[in-house]
């Protein structure tokens, strides 16, 4: 039986690239997004859910458990970006971004990590951002959520050390995905989603005694 990776926000962009990369290495991939209409192919196990809600997270957990297969890798990649400033962003922005970018990862991790601890095996990736370490004026609640996600990654890393479960935070800069559609900037000003996916695989492929705790990856020409 192939090992299993779970990738949230996996229907496109970085998430899909990570799912595809692990599949090429012999994994099957549970790919969750609000819509998985175009997620099909060998090794892909699509599941539609809105992970900004607890009900959505619970439905994904029920599906994963129904497979009766151990989860070797969890990639908490679900995220949403809303530009704005704390003092003027729309009411509800903070709650939306925290529930999507942070709470989904918290509850999904809690639902799956127990089995990893019992097996003394597993790797959890948190898709953070350069916004996790750099505040910018139009970041508002997005920066808050990404700072929180990095903090959760660091706490989780300390908690899981004695259980042989690895935790890696990935902090990508601007990546050429659908969120940048319509930009006038040239492609070489961006990371490619495959760059992030290759970095995740490289971290996973280390020996059992080594872990990459954080991956900071930026466009060669710097942040946008």
TrEMBL record:
GO molecular function per UniProt: oxidoreductase activity
Q: Which UniProt keywords apply?
A: Oxidoreductase
Q: Which InterPro entries match?
A: NAD(P)-bd_dom_sf, Sc_DH/Rdtase_CS, SDR_fam
Q: Gene3D superfamilies, alphabetically? A: NAD(P)-binding Rossmann-like Domain (3.40.50.720)
> Which PANTHER family does the entry link to?
ALCOHOL DEHYDROGENASE
Per the record, the similarity remark reads:
Belongs to the short-chain dehydrogenases/reductases (SDR) family.
Protein's name according to its UniProt entry = Short-chain dehydrogenase/reductase SDR
